[in-house]
UniProtKB/TrEMBL annotation:
Protein name: Calcium binding EGF domain-containing protein
Chain coiled-coil ranges: none
Keywords recorded for this protein, A-Z: Disulfide bond, EGF-like domain, Glycoprotein, Repeat, Signal
Domain EGF-like as annotated: residue spans: 1-27, 29-70, 124-163, 209-248, 259-296, 297-334
Native source species: Wuchereria bancrofti
Keyword presence, Metal-binding: no
Domain of life of the organism encoding this protein: Eukaryota
Disulfide bonds: C17-C26, C60-C69, C286-C295, C324-C333, C340-C367
Any Pfam family hit: EGF_2
């Protein structure tokens, strides 16, 4: 039975049973589940044993695997998506308190484990938080990576590293004026043009030649006429003074009133300069140290600097000097002479100081009066 092999013997037979069967005619199925139960050869860890034609099969409890359910399953085997699509699950030792299988996540570049210890799934790293791009360039976060937008105008590079473009050295860029030539000044991300040369106007990129009258060469009240370079005036312009004024009109003093009698040589004192400002008015421009309509007042002598004890004189350089009255001395007549000798009561005689060339003495100086008596009155 059951696929056994029958061997004919003398007055009897013998059955050679296939595996998993026994009995005289191989009629009995061997119960390996019962035989091996509780032994290392049977199902382990409370697994269920199921007989099959070719032997037995162990149905493992959750958390175990293997032919006999002898192996404990790792956390990574429970779930293949514990670490997310960008992570690789690595089994670790079971938790010493719960005996739960442990694991950690090995994340791909651009990802990192979550801060949640109970769920350390691999999350995307936002590289833009660390500002990896060049200032002024936009950072775009990507799964596991990032990219930088193009460099700012006037710079070249990959967005992380941007280098200044020297526009002044480029032959393909229109920068500053070539005629007339204007200096190009390179700056970070751009460039600047020096001012247009004298006689031209513009922003340095474009310089246009100015007409002579645009340079305001005439007196403020004069009219300017552009005459062209063929005119008698080599500068190419002509100035015309207004009625009542004469002169060539060139410059701020090119026109003056015809009534020159207002400004005589003695109109302004102390070397002041006279200027006619209208038909009937003039103005004195005083030198330093003098004020007044005709520069007649010296500024150094306006504050009673000599203390009413002397006469104030102004020197040519604008400084002052005090000519002190008798009995006073000092730069501003601030000191009073000591007056040696007391009162003189003689009717005749000559008063003589110890040194007749000096009229004041320092304090505590010894001095005396010498009376020379007239010989006729002896």
């Amino acid at each position: 039975m059951n696929g056994a092999t029958c061997i004919d013997l003398y007055n009897k037979f013998m059955c050679i049973c296939p595996s998993h069967f026994e009995g005289e005619t191989c009629e009995n199925r061997i119960d390996e589940c019962s035989i091996y139960q509780g032994t290392p050869a049977g199902c382990q860890n409370n697994a269920s044993c199921i007989l099959k034609p070719d032997g037995f099969h162990c149905l493992c409890q959750e958390g175990f695997h293997g032919t006999l359910c002898q192996l404990r399953a790792t956390a990574c085997e429970f779930s293949l998506d514990l670490c997310g699509p960008a992570g690789h699950c690595i089994p670790t030792q079971p938790d010493p308190e719960t005996n739960e299988p442990g694991y950690r996540c090995l994340c791909e570049w651009g990802y990192r484990s979550s801060a949640d210890k109970n769920n350390p799934v691999c999350e995307d790293v936002n590289e833009c938080e660390s500002n990896p791009c060049y200032p002024g360039t936009t950072c775009i976060n990507l799964p596991g990576s990032f990219k930088c937008d193009g460099c700012p105008p006037g710079m070249t590079g990959n967005g992380m590293i941007c280098l200044d473009v020297d526009e002044c050295a480029s032959e393909n860029l229109e920068t500053c004026s070539k005629d007339p030539p204007v200096k190009c000044i390179n700056t970070i991300g751009s460039y600047e043009c020096a001012p247009c040369p004298p006689g031209y106007k513009g922003d340095g990129h474009i310089c246009k030649k100015q007409s002579p009258c645009e340079l305001s060469p005439c007196h403020p009240k004069a009219k300017c006429y552009n005459m062209g370079m063929s005119s008698l005036n080599e500068e190419g312009f002509r100035c015309e003074c207004p009625p009542g004024m004469i002169g060539d009109g060139i410059g701020t003093e090119g026109c003056y009133h015809s009534n020159v009698t207002l400004c005589r040589t003695d109109t302004c004192y102390n070397q002041g300069t006279c200027q006619i400002i209208s038909e009937e008015a003039y103005k004195c421009h005083c030198k330093w140290g003098y004020v007044g309509k005709r520069c007649e007042l010296a500024t150094a002598c306006l504050s009673n600097i000599c203390r009413s004890r002397g006469e104030c004189l102004v020197k040519k350089d604008g400084s002052f000097e005090c000519l002190c009255l008798r009995g006073y001395y000092g730069p501003t007549c601030e000191y009073e002479e000591d007056g040696c000798g007391g009162h003189i009561t003689n009717e005749t005689g000559v008063i003589k100081y110890p040194d007749w060339t000096w009229y004041h003495f320092g304090r505590n100086k010894t001095c005396e009066w010498i009376i020379i008596v007239n010989e006729l009155n002896k």
